[in-house]
Design a protein that fits this description.
Blueprint lengths: L7 H14 L4 H8 L3 H13 L2 H17 L5 H9 L5
Helix pairs in contact: 1-2, 1-3, 1-4, 2-3
């Protein structure tokens, strides 16, 4: 089986999705993605500062892969996308 490649944007989106699901702590996620907590908070802040329309545009190209990979369900995507941003 060939190695699966992913772009930086896909990795950032996966990170944000996993953080939004709140199944792991920020520390656990940052260790898993091999980034500093500071970087994790930057990714999260940038995602939350983007409007809902921009978030949808960012996610759509990668949505099929995320769902097919079992990372997220369509129901969870709807909850994340339409949740009011945290302040």
């Amino acid at each position: 089986m060939p190695w699966k490649t992913s772009s930086v944007m896909e990795e950032k989106l996966r990170f944000v999705f996993e953080q939004e699901l709140q199944e792991r702590t920020m520390t656990e996620l940052c260790q898993r993605y091999e980034i500093t907590r500071q970087t994790g908070y930057v990714w999260l802040r940038r995602y939350r500062e983007a409007g809902a329309a921009e978030r949808i545009e960012q996610i759509l190209p990668h949505l099929d892969e995320l769902v097919d990979g079992g990372l997220i369900t369509l129901e969870k995507v709807r909850v994340i996308l339409y949740r009011p941003p945290k302040k």
